[in-house]
Amino acid sequence: MQSFELTAEPRTDVGKGASRRLRRSGRVPGILYGSDKDAAMVSFDHDDLLHRLDYEAFFSHILTIKLDGASENVVLKDLQRHPFKRMIYHVDFQRINEKEELTMRVPLHFVNEETCPGVKTGGGVISHIMTDLEIACLPKDLPEYIEVDLGALDLGDAIHLGELKLPGGVEILSLRHGGDPELPVVNVHLPHVEVEEEEVEEAAAEELAAEAPEAEAEGGEQEEQGKDKEE
User: Fold this and answer.
1) Which of 29, 68, 179, 186 has its CA 20 to 30 A from that of 111?
2) How many CB atoms are located within 10 Å of the residue 203 CB?
3) Which 3 state secondary structure label does DSSP give 177?
4) Residue from 62, 135, 56, 132 nearest 95 by CA
5) Rounded to two decimals, what is the model's pTM?
6) Helix, strand, or coil here: 164?
7) In angstroms, what CA-CA distances link 161 with 36, 155, 180?
8) Beta strands 132-137 and 102-111, pairing class
9) Distance CA 83, CA 76 (A)
10) Does residue 168 contact residue 138 with C-beta atoms inside 8 Å?
11) For residue range 10-63, what is the model confidence (pLDDT) as tens digits?
């Protein structure tokens, strides 16, 4: 299993101005909290943290943070990014206790998409209605991802929330609280046919052209009837 280790530095200067100065110096302000300990204000090397974010597993793994010569196990709980630049504004990590349950969002990995009957022989396409799940488990049971096997799906078939095969010790948080197990996660359906705008315009023009002679004929009949009345 992949492992990640980050080095944090304590920070005592807080506030918007202090955070801006940190960012200009190439560091990201952050916070460590949880596990019945005081929150710790820290900072991380920006480029190092940014590099870790390229790995999907970083978001659902138990991470190690080194601070003042000690190590703490944490999970990533919040991340603030620049709207379009590759820049991190702030990061939050939650300490974990091996005996305390945690909640995390983990990605769904879909397998056997191209070989399922609905796609291979039925000409269907797959719609991923969900791409991740919020789960609850002990830290030791935290999965990197949840696999969803589409190998048996035919046209019109779907896999629902309650049908997902979960690792031992893992629960779907929404179902624990009475959520709907029939919510679709992924399905196979025929591709939608999109009508080109030009085709619509041509059809409308043809319809108007067909109606025009009828309108002229009706106008001529009304004119003739008017003349007859005058006579």
Assistant:
1) 179
2) 11
3) coil
4) 62
5) 0.77
6) coil
7) 34, 19, 8
8) antiparallel
9) 19
10) no
11) 998 888 899 999 999 999 999 999 988 999 999 999 999 999 999 999 999 999
